[in-house]
Prior knowledge:
Organism: Pedobacter africanus
Protein name: 4,5-DOPA dioxygenase extradiol
CATH architecture: 3-Layer(aba) Sandwich
Keywords: Dioxygenase, Oxidoreductase
EC number: 1.13.11.-
Amino acid sequence: MSGLAEFKTFNANLQEQDSLMPVLFIGHGSPMNGIENNAFSTTWAAMARDIPQPKAVLVVSAHWFTRGTHVTAMDFPKTIHDFGGFPQALFDVQYPAPGDPALAAETAGLIHSAVVGLDHDWGLDHGAWTVVRHMYPQANIPVLQLSIDYTKAPEYHYQLAKELYALRKKGVLILGSGNMVHNLRMMSWEMINGGGYDWALEMNERFKSLILNREHQRLLDYQNLGKEAMLAIPTPEHYLPLMYTLGLQNTTEGVSLFNDKAVGGSLTMTSVRIG
């Protein structure tokens, strides 16, 4: 099917709605959250019950870091087990949600700041399926992923997200999946079930305050927030999905936080709902 035909099919299937779909940033943490019924995963499931059922889910995951921007465009994305050293039960999980090639074409067409590739090789990595399988366990809602261009600065991703705003009007849940504070090299197994270093807790509080006060530019310029920010974000891939979520906030929408907890000393699960 041609891109134009896909575009028309998408428009026929997903009409604009009266309500605007909320936007989420999920702190996904350990892949084990994908199979555990814990405080984090049960909150994800509760969130799915609290928001309107989406027509599709578009995930911006920390674990699809690419040169250029791509969107998955296959009929049935594979479940990717992109981790090691975990129990076999985690590797055995399959999340057989359908894709939506027409929605992928529409998504690519909305983005004018980049040429977006239609990808048929990736699938759903653990930043996507470990969260979404708790939210929509029947796997009957199309799930797509949008990659993060590692050559670009936070401002680029924030502005690109704004081009996706029309999808919210059509019932698409856009979900950023990463962690605000994410420094695996400094993890403490003694604090794996809860607790954070002073710098991690301090930076998490600063991030929360900036988010709640809509000080997005300071969040984009996180490298100017001091040494704690550099410890919290030694590499940007887990932080950038938050920029997509914030970029989709309009001027009248409120923000709420959930799963606001530090684990492993150097990682926070703090998550954001807009709308």
